Amino acid sequence: MKISDYFGENVFSKAVMRERLPKEVFDEICSVERDGGQISMSAADVVAKAMMEWAVERGATHYTHWFLPLTGVTAEKHDSFLTVPNEDGKVILKLTGKQLIMGEPDASSFPTGGLRATHYARGYTAWDITSPAFVKEMSCGTILCIPTVFISYTGEALDNKTPLLRSMEALSQQAIRMIRLFGDTKAKKVVPSVGAEQEYFIVDREKYLRRRDLIYTGRTLFGAPAPKGQELEDQYFGVIRERVGTFMADLNVELWKMGITATTQHNEVAPAQHESAPIYTTCNIAVDQNQLTMETMKRVAGRHGLVCLLHEKPFAGVNGSGKHNNWSISTDTGENLLDPGTTPNDNLQFLLVLSCIIKAVDRHADLLRMSTACVGNDQRLGADEAPPAIISIFLGTQLEDVVDQIVRDGTAATSIVGEQLDTGVSTLPLINKDAADRNRTSPFAFTGNKFEFRMVGSSDCIANSNTVLNTIVAEAFCEAADILEKSNDFTADANRLIADNLREHRRVIFSGNGYSPEWVEEAERRGLPNLPSMVSSIPSLTTEKAIDLFERFGVYTKAELESRSEIMYETYAKVTCIEAKTMIHMAKKHYIPAIVRYTARLADSVCKVRNACAEACTAVQEKLLKQTSAYLNEANEALTHLEACVDYSNSLDCIAEMANYCYDTIAPAMRALREPIDRLELTVDKDIWPVPTYGDLMFEV
Ligand code: ADP
Ligand code: MG
C-alpha cells in the first residue's frame, strides 16, 4: 500500500469534516478555529454525531478527552459510546455535543501545586478545536481521542496546553501589530510553527527487565563504561540494525495513520541511540503530536521485544537525548517572518523581528532555561554533546556580520553571500554554500529560517518551552509596536530601534564552542545567567519579571506560576528519592550479595590452592580479595549514608527545601554509592554480576 493511501486515516481531519458535516456546520467549525468564538450547541451535536460515526467505522468503542496534565505525560479516561439498552436489549451508540465540548474528570489525583485542595476535586476538560481529534489503536481497544485543555473549578490551568494556546494568541496579536507597520493588511493571524526532532534509545526488553533502575527510573543508576562507546563516531548516521529497523518501519506506519508526518530517521551519536523527526506544523498540534509520538514509540517498541528509553541520560559517559525544538513564525497568508531573504541587511522587517527575538531571549534567558528543566535533563545539560545550561544565540556568519555592522554603524550596508564549493572532481556538481555554517554546540541557533532550541529534554513536553518562547517574543514585539505605531519617520525609527535592541543585547550572541570551559567564564563576564540545575532554575518562574510578563499577556496568573514552581520542586524531590531508593534496593538485593559471593569464591580458591599445594602462589586471588573487600566496604558505607539521607529528607516540610536537599546532598550520596560498585563491575566475574552491563544493553539489540 502507498503511504498516501493510509496517511491520516485515523484523523478526523478537515477533509473528513468537509465530507461528513453539513456545510454550515463545517463553516462554523472553521470560523471558530480561525477567529475564535464559541461553537453553538446545535453544531456541536452534529459534529459529535459525525465524529462518533466516523470513529465507530474505524473500530472505536470508546472516546476520551485527551489532555496534558502537569505530569508531563498525557491523560485519558475511556468512556464507551454505549447508552442504556432499550426494552429489546438493544443499545444505540451516542456522543453528544456536550460530551464532545466538555468533560468533568475527578481532578484530585493530578498535580495541582496547591491550586486546589483534594476535597475540591472538580476539574474540567474542554475541547481544543484547533487540534484534530483522532483514533488510537491500542490493546484495550480503539479509542476516539478528543484533544482538550484541563482547568480547575476556579478556571486555573491544570495542564500544559492552556498556557500554550494563550501564548499563541498573545504572540499572534503582537506580531500582527508588527506586520501592519510594514503594510501587511491581509494577514489575520500569525502562527508559530514547530518541528520537534525526537531522540531516543532502544534496548532489548529482556535485558531491560533485569535492571530495576531502568524499570523504575528510565535510566541506569549504576554501570561501568563498556570498552567501546561512541569514540569511533561510527554510530551517527550508520546503517540501522535490522531489529531496530523493523521497529522504525512499524512506528512510522502507526504515526502516519495518525497524521503525524514522521519523516527523518537515523542513528544518533551514542550506541543504541536514534532519532525521528516530523515535518513542522502549527505549534499546538506539534505539541500534541510529539506527546503522541513518544507514547507510540514506547508501545510499538514493546511489540518488537524492545524498550524505548526517552530519558535524557539513560547511560553515563555517552550522549544523552534531547529534543530540537525548531520554531518559526508565519502569517496565515504563508509568510515566514524569520525568512531573511538573500540580503538580510536591507530586509527591515526581518531585522526588526530578529532584534526583538534577540532582546527577548537575552532578557528572559532564565525563563527559557527553566522551561527545559526536568529531572532527567539535569544529567544531560552541560554533559557530552548536549548544550550547556547557559542560554546564548548562534546566528551564523552572515547574520552576525549584519548585526555587527548595525551595532557599529546604525545600519548594515552589505550581506555576505554564500560562495560556491568546488570539490576538485569535474563530474561532481558545484555546491552552493549556505551563507552561514552550523554550530552544534549552541542552545539556540538560527538555522536558515527558524530558530532551533536544543536544550529541551527528550522526555519533556515541548509545550513549556514554546509557551515561554511565544510569550517573551510577544512582549518584545509589543514594545516595538508601541514605539513604532507612534512614529512619524518609520524607517528611521525602525532602524534606530533595531540598533538599540542589538546594542543592548549583543552579549547573548555567541558563535564559539559552547561546550568549552572558557565559554562558562566568558558568559559570566558578559553577565549571562548560568543555572546549572533544575532546582536553581525554578525560582525564575516566580520572579517579579516573570509574573509581570505572563500576567500582562494573559498566559499565566501569579497563582498558576506559583503552582507550577511548587510542582517542579515536588517532582524533583520525588524523582530523586525514587532514584535513591532504587539504588538502595539494587545495592542491597543485587550488587552486595553478588559481590559477597564473589569474595567467597576468591577466599575458597585461596584455601583450596594452598591445601592442594603449599608452594603455589595465591597472590592474585589475595590481591583481588583485598581490593574487592575494600570496595565492598566502601559501597556499604555509602549505602548506609544514602539511606540516612533519604530518611532525613522525609522529615523536611518545605518542598523547596526538600528539593534543594535532594540536589545538594542526596545526588552526591548517590554518586558515592555508584562509584565503588562501578569499579567492582570491571573485576567481578561476568557470571556472578547480577545485571546486564552497558555493553550488553547498548551493543546487543
Ligand atoms: P536538521 O536540524 O537536522 O538540519 P532540518 O533543518 O531538516 O533538520 O529540520 C529539522 C526540523 O525542523 C524538522 O522537523 C523540520 O520540519 C523543522 N523545520 C524546518 N523548517 C522549519 C520552519 N520554518 N519552522 C519550524 N520548523 C521547521
Ligand atoms: Mg537539528
Bound molecules: adenosine-5'-diphosphate, magnesium ion
**Contiguous helical run count:** 23
Mean pLDDT: 94
Largest beta-sheet characterization = 9 strands, mixed
What gross morphology would you assign?
globular
Which residues sit in consecutive blocks of at least 5 with pLDDT less than 50? Answer: none
Structural class determined from secondary elements: alpha+beta
Rg result: 28 Å
The proportion of residues forming helix, as a percent range, comes to 40-55%
Number of strands: 17
Distance from first to last alpha carbon: 29 Å
How would you classify the quaternary structure?
Answer: single chain
Strand content range: 5-15%
What does this structure look like?
This protein is an alpha+beta fold and 701 residues long. The protein is built from 23 helices and 17 strands. The protein has helices at 3-6, 14-20, 23-35, 41-57, 97-101, 161-181, 205-208, 212-217, 242-257, 283-303, 348-363, 365-371, 377-380, 397-409, 463-484, 490-505, 517-526, 534-537, 544-552, 558-612, 619-650, 655-681, 694-699; strands at 60-66, 79-80, 102-103, 123-127, 134-138, 141-152, 190-204, 262-267, 273-278, 281-282, 306-309, 323-331, 393-394, 420-421, 431-432, 444-446, 451-453. The strands form 3 sheets. Strands 7, 8, 9, 10, 11, 12, 13, 16 and 17 form a 9-stranded mixed sheet that branches. Strands 1, 2, 3, 4, 5 and 6 form a 6-stranded mixed sheet that branches. Strands 14-15 form a two-stranded antiparallel ribbon. A hairpin with a 5-residue loop joins strand 8 and strand 9. The longest helix is centred in the last third of the chain and has 55 residues, at 558-612. It is globular. Magnesium ion is lined by residues 197, 324, 452.
